[in-house]
């Protein structure tokens, strides 16, 4: 899976000389720069060579083929010309592996992420064109429990991004009581082993607002330091969303291949959350510096904080940590195995450092004291909150303007 580091995305590209201009214009992270359309490129006065380079690199990034970016750009060919090149030439001239050649020439695979038509990209100042060929979210069919309005969500029938933008915004001052969501539990060992129970009610806002956290990494921007250079003091979690609502991703273990895949597919849609006015924050429950450096910004470019008391993780379980065992929770759980294969197929690296049996999940929290609008629980190892569902919740939580 391609890195979100701008250094790795730009490589030896002719785009490097544009870094000051990109920073000034707000095109300062990989997901946002990939949203550029022809008008944006003309406004920035990109040369034809730079336009071709950006098109090639964006295409390769979508397909996790950035290892070939410098070689393909140096050929002087456009993306269209490269796609029409024979597979033999791609292999011999650019050193592409057979499987990578197949992935490169497969134009039918929908990889591009675009903004819905009514969403405004902050860096652009006007609407982007929508293309419904977004990434498949890989989510599995599951019932969703609504705590306050009895609405049922499903990852199969979840509202599409297009449907999400139709619903009116909720008035300022509305206090969310939230929706709890989780994938269904699978039978384990012929039903002899029961899965851990999960809560039906959303965590009370009081259980998360005063959690003590420490910032490990800021929101990533091109040209910034890789990590916070000075030790940040502890802070109350409510300060994170005091002025801006947040999507809080509670990461079970940053070296886990399934956790990295979830973080990557969520952060890839950063421009959509930017347009909705939401920030992206990852919460870790232990600080291993080497793990943070590997995780940020390669797989996640949002803010990273550590919750050493595991209070966010306890809130997901109604006050207790949700744990599972490796044998019964993974090896004997067909859904967890399926989640692992889904992440493995993407081509991610992984390691086994750190504690990985404490379940994670997600909170969507409104600004100020508006409350928790959505809570997703990682019932099976590797469960992801469906993206369309998260965007739907964020859209509804926008204050009226």
Q: Report the C-alpha radius of gyration, rounded.
A: 21 Å
- The CATH topology of the largest domain corresponds to Glutaredoxin
Number of domains: 2
Low-confidence stretches: 126-171
Tell me, what is the CATH class of the largest domain? Alpha Beta
Q: Could you give the order of strands across the largest sheet?
A: 1-2-9-8-5-6-7-3-4
Total helices: the number is 17
Shape verdict: globular
Q: Alpha-carbon distance between the termini?
A: 38 Å
Q: Biggest sheet, in brief?
A: 9 strands, mixed
Total strands: 9
Fourth-tier CATH superfamily name of the largest domain: Glutaredoxin
Q: What is the annotated CATH architecture of the largest domain?
A: 3-Layer(aba) Sandwich
- Approximately how much helix is present in the residues? 25-40%
Helices and strands, in N-to-C order? HHHHHHHHHEHEEEEHHEHEHHHEEH
Blueprint of the fold:
Blueprint: H1 6-10, H2 19-25, H3 30-33, H4 38-43, H5 48-62, H6 69-74, H7 79-83, H8 87-94, H9 98-105, E1 144-146, H10 161-164, E2 179-182, E3 212-217, E4 235-236, E5 246-250, H11 257-267, H12 270-276, E6 279-284, H13 289-295, E7 303-306, H14 311-316, H15 326-331, H16 334-344, E8 361-365, E9 372-377, H17 387-397
Parallel strand pairs: 2-9, 5-6, 6-7
Antiparallel strand pairs: 1-2, 3-4, 3-7, 5-8, 8-9
Helix pairs in contact: 11-16
């Amino acid at each position: 899976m391609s890195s979100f580091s701008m250094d790795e995305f730009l490589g030896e590209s002719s785009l490097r000389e544009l870094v000051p201009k990109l920073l000034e214009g707000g095109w300062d992270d990989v997901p946002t720069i990939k949203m550029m359309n022809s008008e944006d490129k003309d406004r920035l006065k990109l040369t034809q060579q730079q336009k071709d380079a950006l098109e090639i690199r964006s295409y390769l990034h979508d397909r996790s083929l950035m290892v070939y970016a410098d070689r393909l750009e140096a050929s002087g060919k456009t993306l269209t010309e490269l796609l029409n090149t024979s597979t033999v030439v791609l292999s011999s001239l650019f050193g592409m592996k057979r499987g990578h050649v197949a992935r490169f020439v497969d134009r039918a695979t929908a990889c591009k992420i675009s903004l819905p038509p009514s969403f405004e990209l902050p860096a652009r100042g006007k609407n982007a064109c929508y293309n419904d060929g977004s990434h498949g979210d890989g989510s599995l069919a599951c019932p969703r429990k609504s705590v306050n309005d009895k609405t049922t969500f499903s990852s199969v029938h979840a509202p599409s991004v297009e449907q999400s933008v139709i619903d009116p915004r909720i008035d300022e001052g509305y206090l969310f009581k939230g929706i709890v969501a989780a994938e269904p539990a699978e039978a384990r060992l012929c039903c002899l082993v029961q899965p851990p129970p999960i809560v039906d009610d959303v965590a009370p806002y009081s259980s998360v607002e005063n959690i003590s956290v420490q910032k490990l990494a800021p929101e990533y921007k091109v040209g910034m330091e890789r990590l916070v250079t000075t030790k940040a003091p502890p802070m109350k979690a409510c300060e994170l969303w005091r002025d801006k609502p947040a999507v809080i991703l509670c990461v079970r273990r940053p070296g886990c291949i399934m956790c990295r895949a979830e973080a990557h597919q969520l952060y890839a849609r950063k421009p959509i959350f930017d347009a909705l006015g939401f920030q992206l924050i990852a919460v870790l429950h232990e600080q291993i510096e080497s793990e943070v450096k590997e995780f940020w910004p390669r797989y996640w470019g949002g803010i990273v904080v550590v919750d050493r008391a595991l209070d966010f993780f306890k809130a997901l379980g109604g006050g207790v940590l949700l744990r599972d065992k490796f044998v019964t929770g993974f090896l004997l759980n067909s859904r967890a195995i399926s989640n692992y294969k889904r992440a493995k197929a993407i081509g991610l690296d992984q390691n086994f450092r750190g504690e990985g049996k404490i379940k994670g999940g997600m909170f969507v929290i409104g600004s100020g004291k508006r409350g928790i609008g959505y809570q997703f629980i990682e019932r099976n190892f590797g469960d992801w909150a469906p993206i369309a569902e998260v965007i739907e919740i964020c859209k509804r939580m926008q204050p009226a303007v």
